[in-house]
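Researcher: Here's the sequence for the chain we discussed earlier.
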Amino acid sequence: MVRAAPDGHTLFLLSATNAYNTTLYDNLSFDLARDLAPVASIGRDAFVLVIIPSVPAQSGADFIAYARANPGKINLATSGTGSASDLYGVLFKAMAGIELTTVHYRGVGQTLPDLIGGRVQAIFLPVASALGHIRDGKLRPLGVTTATRRDVLPDVPPIGDFVPGYEATDWTGIGAPARTPAEIITLLNGEINAALADPAFAARLAALGVEPFPSTPAEFARFIAAYTATWGKVIRAAHLKPE
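Model: Thanks. This is the structure I predict for it:
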């Protein structure tokens, strides 16, 4: 697909996963920075750290204290090695100075039965995936990964409130094949940003825990480069490799 004609008719949905994969994989068939032209960012997505109600913690600070008193006894589920839920947990454990036992699954859908059933006790989930279970009382939210609260979880603080400096944001955007003419990219960027400015569309994103993320193509390119570098350091420090 990256070899498609650079005429504006072939576009790619980009996400944080593309940035992670740059470091995780040694043999990708394309180079994110070389082969794709950033067109426009779409949204920044919050994850939320949730636990099952049987864990005796009512807040993030409680959870950290409990984990320190019980090293390795809390199972932290992920949706796979190198996934957002895994990386956000890796960063959380390092910054909070706690030991959790990581249990990898293949996708969010596989984690939920074991989580609800109590076989694992904690996970970082996209807000949209966690909302129903939080509202049903099956999961207890402790903190969102973004620097600010989300409207759909107004009583849930940012993790940075109890782990100073912590921030982890998922994102999506649009890319085109490299060498797509600048005038086409500019046109597409303007149309996407206009959609993000629509109040109804922004409200729909907010209901999913997503913040509209307008940018110019150049701003989006700089964001991707910085994001890739930041999480590349986390991945290398944790010696993560895909299973």
